[in-house]
């Protein structure tokens, strides 16, 4: 355990602390630029920002963010996208804390344009800085430093999958010391075969100072005595022990363990959104941003779209349709009408070159402006800004029969945009495999939800719209 504590201390000292110091310097640099490099701060407010308390609050906001959210650049197994998302979350929390404290203590808030500039600059610079730190850490690990030595007991398929995940890239920093197995032929090439499982006990007792973790895939139901002794040996020598269960036949998803009395129960679907705090955070964000949009920009968007629709096609400005929502409940979903009125609107998907789409409607669909009335659904609570897209009732009836886990996607509120959409799953589904892919991505989102994931999806959506990147927007 002493080696684990030393490693944690080194990780904090050499990786987390420099990252935090960099965050603070970036915040100070951006605020200095806003105050002295833009000439946009009101002259009467400048002395208030120059006083010591303002800069002290900025540093305190950075430290509070590190405590609340954490600094994750050094964590093993995190990809580039995850690091970028965490950087954006750190920047966003610091931004909210600082400006909130300034408003409460000094009754002082930057002007709208400056606030936007501060948010954009800090977010962009945080991502660049955190990714740079990640690359530095990766280079250090590729040179053999900052490694995490592990011993693997068993060569079952699940253990071999875990081994591949640990060693697929040098920058994870895992150092597999070897396998203990009764099937030496299954040991991957260039990895030491340390002997049969029974020999693992003595090995750990002799080398515990150089082992951080032991992973075991042996079945405790059939190897009860050995597994119990192995666990006791690891605990007595302060080595972390982890069990890698065989889950062949079950979907490869993020699962969670809970307890029913003294029995461990594995849930096939992790639902991070299914907690009071997560629901409160997501609903609060939905109400705030949808309400803000509806009372500011939406009236102008409505006027523009209403004129274009009325000049292009007889009928209402809005199109409403029954869709399947949270927990399978039906609701009326609103859109700006982009098609001529037809009898098959509730059963037929839009296709490329669809004759029902009038020219202005084609513009609405390509620009995604037709989806903006769904902010009304968000404010009402039928939808969320981010989530699986709601499908027509007709399609729910069909695909729920063809795809076994189709209905799982309704364990979260449907969204205006979602993980599937920013990954190319949008528009017409010609093949069943396309819908299966969409459903898998929707389920992945439900099981991996986080605030930073929602922020990432939103930013990716905006970027794709601005670049007109989606070929299926027809």
Written overview of the protein:
The structure is a single chain. The protein is of the alpha/beta class. It folds into 3 domains: 2-142, no CATH class; 148-249, 3-Layer(aba) Sandwich (Rossmann fold); 276-467, no CATH class. The chain contains 16 helices and 11 strands. The strands form 4 sheets. It has a 5-stranded parallel beta sheet, with helices on both faces. Residues 1-6 have low confidence and may be disordered.
How would you concisely characterize the structure shown here?
The protein has 16 helices and eleven strands.
Name its key features.
474 residues, alpha/beta, Rossmann fold, 3 domains, five-stranded parallel beta sheet, two-stranded antiparallel ribbon, 11% strand
SSE layout and pairing:
Layout: H1 2-36, H2 46-50, H3 52-68, H4 80-106, H5 112-142, E1 148-153, H6 157-167, E2 174-180, E3 193-195, H7 200-207, E4 213-216, H8 224-236, E5 240-243, E6 256-260, E7 263-267, H9 276-296, H10 298-312, E8 318-324, E9 330-336, H11 359-367, H12 374-380, E10 384-386, H13 393-402, E11 415-417, H14 419-422, H15 432-447, H16 451-467
